[in-house]
Amino acid sequence: MPPNGASSRGCDTVAMGVEYVTSAAMVEPEQLVGGFFEGWATPLSADEHLGLLRAATHTVVGVEDGQVVGFVTALSDGVLSAYIPLLEVRPDWRHRGVGTELVRRVLIEVGPLYMVDVMCDADVFGFYERLGFHPSTGGVLRNYDWRAGIEGTE
Ligand SMILES: CC(C)(COP(=O)(O)OP(=O)(O)OC[C@H]1O[C@@H](n2cnc3c(N)ncnc32)[C@H](O)[C@@H]1OP(=O)(O)O)[C@@H](O)C(=O)NCCC(=O)NCCS
After folding, report:
1. How far apart are CA 6 and CA 43, in angstroms?
2. Closest ligand 1 atom to Cα of 98
3. How far apart are CA 102 and CA 62, in angstroms?
4. Which domains does the chain have, with CATH numbers?
5. N or C: which end of the chain has fewer CB within 10 A?
6. pTM for this one?
């Protein structure tokens, strides 16, 4: 078990009233309501949301009173590198430390890799910088024919 008390996959720990679960295997679609994918022109359905949580190599969800209040996913090659594609805290739960705790825990879950990368809007980068991420240069491909993303980008 990692030294800071975060646990191996599937086990739960609680901080500040939020239970952090390192697997989505026991999450149900009904627990994923409340405004995730804020600002997306076509938000994912709860079933799609659950699908990506279960397909990611690493997932941490924060649960309070039976509802998911935040989640983070990571995709790892298990040797050198991992990517954090999605992190979101429900709007009514922001600024209570949940996002920080989710990232802290998913970094423990992926383990001591050489590189962990994230892409985000410039105005959110300060959140990651506090957690030790450095600014870099990246590139993205987006298939807006398949799904419109953030409003205004299609
Ligand atoms: C970014 C996000 C995950 C932060 O979650 P959170 O639970 O509110 O974060 P925390 O409470 O741990 O924040 C701790 C500190 O990080 C900084 N911070 C939080 N949100 C920030 C943001 N959007 N931009 C810049 N800094 C931010 C603040 O200094 C904050 O301290 P404060 O609450 O005293 O102001 C949340 O705002 C969110 O879900 N946003 C929409 C989705 C998104 O942008 N995801 C990240 C891109 S992949």
Report:
1. 30
2. 7
3. 7
4. 12-130 (3.40.630.30)
5. N
6. 0.91
Please report where in the chains the tokens 């590189």 appear, as a residue. Answer: 115
- CB within 6 Å of ligand 1 — which residues? 38, 87-89, 94-100, 120, 123-124, 126-127, 130
pLDDT at 4 > cutoff 70: no
69 φ, ψ (degrees, to nearest 5): -105, -10
Res. 8 pLDDT band, cuts 50 70 90: very low
Atom of ligand 1 nearest to the CA of 95: 11
Question: How many CB atoms sit inside 10 A of residue 145's CB?
Answer: 7
**Residue nearest ligand 1's atom 41 by CA:** 88
Using an 8 Å Cβ cutoff, are 34 and 43 in contact?
no
What is the spatial distance between Cα 117 and Cα 42, in angstroms, rounded to a whole number? 25
* Ligand 1 nearest atom to the CA of residue 88, by list position: 39
What's the CA-to-centroid distance between 25 and ligand 1, angstroms?
26
CA dihedral 50→55→60→65, nearest 10 degrees, is: 20
Q: How far is the CA of 89 from the centre of ligand 1 (A)?
A: 8
Look up residue 1 and give its amino acid: M
**20 CA distance to ligand 1 middle (Å):** 17
